[in-house]
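User: Second chain of the day. Same drill as before.
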Amino acid sequence: MKNIAVVILNYNTFDDTVICVDSIKKFTKKVSYKIYIVDNASPDKSGEQLLAKYTSDSGVDVLRSDVNKGFSGGNNIGIRAALNDGYEYIYLLNSDIILENDAFSLMQDRFETSKDVAIVGPHIVNSIGEYVQFARPGITLALYLVCRRTFATFFPKLEKKLRFFSYNPEENYVFDGMLNGCCFGMKACFIREHDCLDENLFMYYEEDVLAYVLKRNCKKALIVSNAKIIHNEGIATKKSSKDRMLFTRFYRWTSVLYVLRNYAKVNFIICKLISTINIMEWRLLALRNRAYKEKLQDFVSENKRVLRTVKR
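Assistant: Same format as last time:
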């Protein structure tokens, strides 16, 4: 039996991807594994660099996409390759992940003996040691409204209380919902049956989609407290703060509409109203920021796309 496949999504992060691979090789001792690096059409040629570096490494396959397919589409390239090669467990990692111990073996020990669990994740800290793993349900209309900036500014504690489950990070935690998408494993049979990564989303809210997929199929997620990793958050985008804010707003504001419409089953009229408000706010930002003005038509078009796209 082949044990696990590890899929790492690369976009302009050659050095970080190499560090991630090195940490896997250093610590993973008790399970057999193969690494699939998916280059998501990196313009900095890091895909070519990775291909050259690992061309003679039988434990690493470098797969390259001709276009940037986003989180779900990029990871699906690696997932399909791993499924074709017969792996029964598939782990997805951001390129800015560093293992601190034999996390995969520790997660597998719990995963293989937990019948109701279809997704598993580790204990995660950021580069300054703050705990950044989370457990949360799928986004609903009520949660979306609570998380809106106007509401959250006045009631920040309520937002956190409603959006995230409270648990002891030093203990294993099984729950109905989804964990941090920067590093998690799925059973191959679950992926095959439920087409877990929805390519209608380019970026953001993938965890909410998975929370709904789990709930729909009466499956749970598991956080394994003694499996340790570091997540150097944010380096995968390599953008200035202003560019990153625009990028984040663009996809967070549009992706949530798709999830609310197709997974939370929010009425189309309400989703349309949310979209209209977001476009109005984007137009106001465009009045004082040229970058928003240049992206206005793209933003309007993306809103139209997600509103008319129905997940079958």
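The chain has a mean pLDDT of 92.

User: Great, on to the next one.
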